[in-house]
Amino acid sequence: MAAQKVRFGPRRLAHGNLFVSNLERSLRFYTRVCGLREVFREPPIMAGFLSNGSSHHDVALIEISDRTRRGGDGRVTIPASQGRSPGLNHFGWEMETEAQLVEAYRRARESGLEVRRTANHQVSHSVYVFDPEGNFNEFYSDASDDWREVWRPGNTDVLTVEWAPEEAEPSTKPLYVADPDLSPEPGSIIPSRQIDHGALVANDYEKLLAFYTDVAGLEIAFASTHDTFAVLSGSLSGRDLALLPAAEGRPAGMHHVGFRVFDEDELEEAETRLRAEGIEPEMTVDHPTKRSLFLKDPDGIRLEFYVKRSAPLSALADTGGYDPAYLL
User: Fold this and answer.
1) Cα–Cα distance, 133 to 201 (Å, whole number)
2) CB count in 10 Å sphere of residue 112
3) What is the DSSP letter of 36?
4) Distance between CA atoms of 143 and 273, rounded to whole angstroms?
């Protein structure tokens, strides 16, 4: 079976899972500065999860370590060779239903695509694959329509165990939060709504673009005429993933994770608060497609906070002098 027949076809990018050098420090930063709420921890694997209500987590933070991390059944979840430096662990892609996920899993196996692992996280069932450049991707379906009951206060067990996708009849019922009540952390510097997109820089742009269209099943929402960048969307037609080729000053790997802010007034006020705290944005963008600011977390991971404007994505053809990595 050809790779283009795999096509997981997720709804959207729902979370970014990041390795950080100090979990407590990063949790403070992502709550106080970025406006995300801490909702759960798994102390045995040094992990914390943050969400403003759109899902069980917009961001997961895992402290780096040189030891193997294991699930509740003793199965290896993060080998000692992974998670030894800060950066992207994986992007989490939300599927419509478990049935859709299992069908894609079967197509992946039949095509010969390597599935690195499957997992039952109790709040979700997941299939993990690497893209051709080593970026990790989780395709998951929610396994509960009340993730707060699963991630209840005081539950500090390691929840992840093995999941066998074909052992039981998969659910055809969507269990994600269809109309979330988004609520940023009170008193935060940047009142973020939710995660919005990720951006990856490729050594082999064409090969990576083929993976995210043919295997991940994202649609090209906009691509430059000179094949220098592309914006890809899940079935909700968001700006879920930006892809760009590596260039001088733009090394391969994750460029940034993007978060939506409620409106431009909030964004302007947040910029004022940042500067008052002595936090200087790395970059600000004022373009017909968006208004945004970029800053780096304590480990140097780049984050974007932005408000979408009315101009269509075709307006990206005129970059206005910006590096496209900061526009997509």
Assistant:
1) 10
2) 9
3) P
4) 39
| Contact yes or no for 62/17 (Cβ under 8 A) | yes
Torsions phi, psi of 94, nearest 5?
-85, 125
pLDDT digits (tens, 9 = 90+) for 118-153: 999 999 999 999 999 999 999 999 999 999 999 987
Say which CATH number the domain at 130 has. Answer: 3.10.180.10
Residue 109 Cα distances to 100, 102, 323, angstroms: 14, 11, 38
The two beta strands, 241-245 and 192-202, are: parallel
* CA geometry: angle 115, 116, 119, nearest 5 deg: 95
Work out how many domains the chain is built from and give that number. 2
Q: Under a CB-based contact definition with an 8 Å cutoff, are residues 209 and 240 in contact?
A: no
Residues 131 and 209 in one domain: no
How many Cβ atoms sit within 10 Å of the Cβ of residue 76?
A: 12
Residues 6+ apart with CB under 8 A from 5: 107, 111
Please check whether residue 127 is in contact with residue 104, taking contact to mean a CB–CB distance below 8 angstroms: yes
Q: Which amino acid is at 68?
A: T
Range of the domain at 244: 192-326
Please name the residues in contact with 251: beta carbons below 8 A apart, sequence gap of 6 or more. 201
In a domain, 201, yes or no: yes
Element (H, E) at 208: helix 205-210
Please report whether residue 294 resides in a domain.
yes
Mean pLDDT of the chain: 95
Q: Rounded to an integer, what distance in angstroms lies between the CA atom of residue 61 and that of residue 70?
A: 16
**pLDDT at residue 1, as a whole number:** 41
Do the domain assignments include residue 277? yes
Q: Is residue 139 part of a domain?
A: yes
Q: pLDDT grade, residue 211 (50/70/90)?
A: very high
Distances (CA, A) of 139 to 46, 103, 186, 275, 282: 22, 12, 31, 38, 31
Query: Structure tokens of 15?
Result: 């979370």
Q: Which amino acid, 84?
A: R
Residues 230, 124, single domain; the answer is no
Regarding whether 139 and 8 lie in a shared domain, the answer is yes
